[in-house]
Design goal:
This protein folds into two domains: 8-71, no CATH class; 80-249, Rossmann fold, CATH 3.40.50.150. Helices cover 45% and strands 19% of the residues. The protein is built from nine helices and seven strands. It has a seven-stranded mixed β-sheet with strand order 3-2-1-4-5-7-6. The longest helix is centred in the first third of the chain and has 31 residues, at 41-71.
């Protein structure tokens, strides 16, 4: 398998969200011109504030993306040792929402595990342009099954693990996420686990992404969803300050 480049994660984020970065660069150029050409002090203040905001967005979001996706342990997979500790995994379910660049790596790393990849993408429900770009750039891998978030083509108690990697936040309502957890519980054997990896709506992600952090969900919202489905939080930890790992256990 081709190794990830040192800038792959950051460049992927930029490709998915390129209109925002193009707009930010245009603001940067316009405000620099304003600072150079406008004489009124008030106008220079306005241009300076806009320049700082645009620069912060570009450098902050791309810098954090590079740190999280290219420089941290996230895609080195060392954190899986803690998340999977004590769990005998024979069959696993990997869930994504239209963007899958990692399941092939997991299949290679855990070659003795039988993996089923489920794609929850729904073009009527997930209408954001960035998701559509992601799906076009990374089409589903061979053997992926389309599956509604609340109805999976899996037998009852057929899996030991459900892994949702930076994907389940695309289910925008708590009701939808609760149903996803309920379907996870149906498919898991007793003692099985859900490992949920997500950015959350917290101070660190606000610092990194500004108002864009509202695209994520709060830890309290996630907790309500999994507790509604009957899961217990077995472990919680971070990979960088910006990504949280929730390890949930089925009684």
């Amino acid at each position: 398998m081709k190794a990830r480049s040192h800038w792959q994660g950051m460049m992927t984020i930029a490709r998915f969200n390129w209109p925002f970065y193009v707009a930010a660069v245009l603001v940067l150029l316009a405000t620099i011109c304003g600072l150079l050409l406008l004489s009124a002090f008030a106008n220079k203040i306005i241009c300076g504030v806009a320049l700082a905001g645009a620069a912060y967005f570009v450098l902050g979001s791309l810098g954090v993306s590079h740190l999280v996706y290219d420089r941290s342990d996230l895609y080195q997979w060392g954190w899986l040792d803690r998340a999977f500790r004590g769990l005998n995994i024979r069959q696993a379910i990997f869930c994504h929402s239209g963007f899958d660049e990692t399941s092939a790596e997991l299949r290679e790393k855990f070659s003795k595990v039988s993996w089923q990849i489920l794609d929850h993408f729904d073009e009527k429900q997930m209408t954001e342009a960035s998701i559509r770009r992601a799906r076009a750039l990374f089409p589903p891998t061979l053997g992926t099954l389309p599956a509604r978030y609340d109805v999976w083509p899996m037998a009852v108690e057929s899996a030991d693990l459900v892994l949702g990697l930076l994907a389940i936040h695309e289910l925008r309502s708590e009701a939808e996420r609760s149903l996803w957890f309920k379907e996870s519980k149906r498919c898991l054997r007793p003692g099985g686990r859900v490992v949920l990896v997500e950015h959350v709506r917290d101070a660190a992600n606000f610092f990194a992404f500004g108002p864009g952090f509202v695209h994520f969900h709060s830890p309290a919202s996630w907790r309500r969803c999994w507790e509604t489905a009957g899961f217990h939080l077995a472990d919680e930890f971070r990979v960088t300050p910006f990504v949280r790992i929730f390890v949930l256990s089925k009684p």
